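Sequence design from tokenized structure. All designs in this work follow the same two-part layout: the structure record, then the generated sequence. An example of the structure record is given first.
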């Protein structure tokens, strides 16, 4: 978010930091960190340390605020109230059908207040879990703006002329929203 606020591509900065520096190779990239473990593990560490794990609490606040931050940034560039926004990926991690604590659903709730319409798709989440999801082709066709919320490999070769917010750099075009 700090890089983005200055118009800088976080992924480019991360590549510069990790290039030829083996100890930094596991530096995480940008994207929605979610799922049940982030909350559970943070709360366990906080309980173990008599609730003095401020770093963990701060990380959770930043993470939980990312969907709202993303929408706020998109509002600066687009009139969302006149747009249909397509969310690509509803699971909390790539290659999974698990939606527990997925920030994609928080993103969808925020967008429902801001956009004309919000559509979602996910190749792994079954209809029994979320019957509102549409096929990828339909979401691409009906949307004015696309957001890659889960880095499923199916989205890596996304071919569209529509604007795409890619917080993961899955498509290789950088991380600037």
């Amino acid at each position: 978010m700090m890089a983005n606020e200055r118009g800088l591509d976080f992924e480019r900065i991360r590549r510069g930091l990790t290039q030829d520096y083996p100890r930094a190779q596991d530096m995480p990239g940008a994207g929605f960190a979610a799922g049940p473990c982030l909350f559970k593990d943070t709360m366990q560490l906080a309980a173990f340390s008599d609730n003095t794990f401020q770093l963990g609490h701060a990380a959770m606040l930043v993470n939980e605020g990312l969907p709202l931050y993303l929408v706020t940034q998109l509002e600066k560039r687009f009139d969302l109230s006149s747009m249909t926004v397509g969310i690509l990926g509803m699971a909390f991690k790539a290659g999974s059908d698990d939606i527990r604590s997925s920030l994609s659903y928080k993103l969808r709730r925020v967008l429902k207040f801001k956009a004309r319409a919000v559509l979602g798709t996910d190749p792994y989440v079954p209809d029994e879990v979320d019957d509102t999801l549409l096929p990828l082709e339909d979401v691409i066709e009906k949307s004015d703006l696309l957001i890659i919320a889960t880095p499923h490999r199916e989205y890596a070769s996304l071919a569209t002329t529509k604007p795409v917010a890619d917080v993961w750099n899955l498509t290789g075009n950088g991380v600037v929203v």
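The first helix runs from residue 2 to 5. We note this feature because it recurs in several other targets discussed in the main text.
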